[in-house]
Amino acid sequence: MKVVVNITPDDCWNFTKYNIKYDSKSKLKFYLNVIAVISLIAFTSFLDKEPIRKIMPTIILSIPMSYYLMLFLMKQQIKNRVKGNEGIIGEHTIEICEDGLREITKVNNSLYLWSGISKIKQDNSYVYIYVEKYTAHVIPKNSFKSEDEAIQFFSDALKYWKGET
Questions:
Q1: Which of 1, 26, 45, 163 has the fewest C-beta atoms under 10 angstroms from its C-beta?
Q2: Entry pTM
Q3: Which domains does the chain show, CATH number per domain?
Q4: Mean pLDDT, to the nearest integer, of 24-48?
């Protein structure tokens, strides 16, 4: 089965958010960064030698601010990293068969054997075929002609990966 996808920076960002949500190490790393920002704000507030009752509102407000600041910074970092990278952004032809997953772009033509695939996941919008712990082929489901075709692609990929064909 073959599908042509057009990967955008937003697709890469959505993949990162998926990892933060479902991968415990990614989630831990993200929240440790948030805690570090909150701790820095708290530390600088204590340097002013203000009473704790004056500092607490600042610390409490820093919690959501730090969370959204980290999301913003990560999104900017990802968009800058992938901008202009024709191996990541742009048109990809993805084909799955018994041998593995073939990816063809302007700058790449690779075959990933099923034995080298670490996991296959999906959410409502994407199929993720992981070739490394934090690297995956991101396949937007809206690239398929129908929802049934996306379901069939995911099902076939799982069968090939598990050796059930």
A1: 163
A2: 0.85
A3: 2-8+89-162 (2.30.29.30), 10-82 (no CATH)
A4: 87
